[in-house]
Amino acid sequence: MAKYPSEETKAFCRIVLPTATAFVAFFLSLSATLRCNFIKFTSTAGFADPVTIQFGPWRHETLAFYSDGAGTVYLVEACTPYSDFGDGTSYMDTHWNSARAFIIIPVVLGGISLIALFTTEMTSCRVPKLHCLNSLSYILACLFQGLSLLFLNSNACKDNLLVRSFEGSNGIEFQETCSMSTGAKCAIAATVFWLVAAVASADAYRHPEKAEGDGGDDATLDASGLDEPLVGDSEHL
């Protein structure tokens, strides 16, 4: 005979699942925002081994070649803000600038929601409708995280002037359009986790007495599992 999860197990899942998925989504979003490897270009000619140069919404990878004088060439990689190169917005189109704004919003919304959630848990101070507010916050985070993928349709991916400049100065040819790197994959994963966190929080809001272990103030539960009135209420009958 199949055994179904107990109410305690369900209540535990309603508490843990929203927090765990939001926690994972937050760090995936943070990784996608801070890293300089959202997209990448791989060399197609001009160097013996394939060379990869990567870009993020806010920072990009720089490459430098050094020779030891004995014929060995070393490749040095560094992650650099765009502002280090004069007018950093001169080669950024609307999609690029929009992605820069959208990718920050999930980190802010998710961070605020997680701080509020951990604060209420640590202080045992239950805030009414907190799960509802967090669910709305996670939905917005999911939306803006998805919109951050506009970076894949920007000049950074389709007509990257930095890549063309690097080609001209080093004699290396790169692919015409970019491919997704670690940052883009983190953003896609974060979008999914934000959505799961939103659904889990909405479910926790729909079952507050089960998610928080609060059976209510107007009734008690007898041994058979049936509701019976409080003593104070029966005296007025």
Structural class determined from secondary elements: alpha+beta
Bin the helical content.
40-55%
Q: Output mean pLDDT.
A: 78
For the sheet with most strands, the description reads: 4 strands, antiparallel
Number of helices in the DSSP assignment: 9
Rg to the nearest angstrom?
26 Å
Strand content: 15-25%
For the secondary structure, the number of strands is 8
List the uncertain runs: 210-226
Order of SSEs:
HEEEEHHHHHEEHHEEH
* Overall geometric form: elongated
Distance between the termini: 44 Å
What do you see in this structure?
The strands form 3 sheets. Strands 1, 2, 5 and 6 form a 4-stranded antiparallel sheet that branches. The protein has a two-stranded antiparallel ribbon with strand order 3-4. A two-stranded antiparallel ribbon has the order 7-8. The chain has 9 helices and 8 strands. A hairpin with a 5-residue loop joins strand 3 (59-67) and strand 4 (73-81). Helices cover 51% and strands 16% of the residues. It is elongated. The protein has 237 residues and is an alpha+beta fold.
List keywords for this structure.
9 helices; alpha+beta; 16% strand
Quick structural overview:
The chain is 51% helix and 16% strand. The protein has 237 residues and is of the alpha+beta class.
Describe the secondary structure blueprint for this structure.
Elements (H helix, E strand, L loop, with lengths): L6 H28 L4 E7 L6 E4 L3 E9 L5 E9 L12 H9 L2 H19 L6 H18 L7 H4 L2 H10 L2 E2 L4 E2 L1 H25 L1 H4 L8 E2 L5 E2 L2 H4 L3
Antiparallel strand pairs: 1-2, 1-5, 1-6, 3-4, 7-8
